[in-house]
Fold:
Amino acid sequence: MKLSYLLLPLLLHATCAWSDDAKVNKEVSEVKKAVLELNQELYQLEKDLLSPATTQVAFYLSLANGKYFEPLALDIKAGDLPAIRHIYTERQIQALRMGAVQPIASDNIGPGKHSIEVTLRGKDGQGQEQTLSLRSEVEKSAAPLMLEVVVRDDSNSKQATASLRVW
Amino acid sequence: MRIPSFTGHAIPQALMIAFVQIALPLLLLTLPTKALAFKLGETFPDFSIPSAFVDYGQRLSEQRGKPVMLLVLDRCDTCDSKLHDFTTLAQSYAQQDLVTWVLWSQQKDDQPPRISLPVLNVSHPWQQGWTTPSPLPALYLINPDGTLEQQFFGSIRALHNYSQSYLSTWMQSLLRPQGQ
Structure:
């Protein structure tokens, strides 16, 4: 009986301590959440400052079928921007064949007309080396510029063609 | 005029000048300018390198979860025969998910080795993230988590021998469940 009198305050103390701990843990997780949200906002702010819509340009690539051409390497020259290059792996080609649109790069470019040169090195349906090239002129307005390099099979000529699509 | 040396013998001035003006710069030139070494246990830098043939490129980070063996060649012009034993060794571990790539650098009109392993052209201007280490040839074993397990330097024959003995233990340790 005496033992229970001794244990009771201890038990009560432990319960209080546990409830305090739970409260502190909850507060800590709330603070963590707030910090994460703030970080996200700061990241967005930084992104908007560094790459505002007026100068934003993004490049994408898609492959329709890929029966007559599989890209192995890509080179894009756009205005004064440093060359954008990409090496394709088997896994990436598989994803493109399944309909994926690949974000290649995003950068900043001034408003006005810009010359875009795309060179795609790859292999044709027989596994022979083939190069697809395209040159186009695009105009950058105040809105973000999204450019998609579309590689499409032409069943009539049994060859693939590359074209540039402006979103 | 004769310059006294540490040994007490006099060194002719002309000899000293010749050493400083000719031999010393030559000696400095022969030193490796970029002795790059990767550290064991650290994440191996990611790279993306095109094939030396009309084939897919390879990216190291895509192989996470698998052990990777990289053989970096020194000058090699159709050195297929030199790589025969190494290719056989790599193929014997391919069933245990070991990924093996041969990294080749084109010099002059050299042709890449035609072997059954993927041969990547590190001298291609479009490669990304790769810096050829020194000395060469070199062999790198990369853990499934992307960290460098071991590195060897020496001739192709020596690398084959090193890797042969190391691979059996390493691959067994990877097959074993963790904590055993």
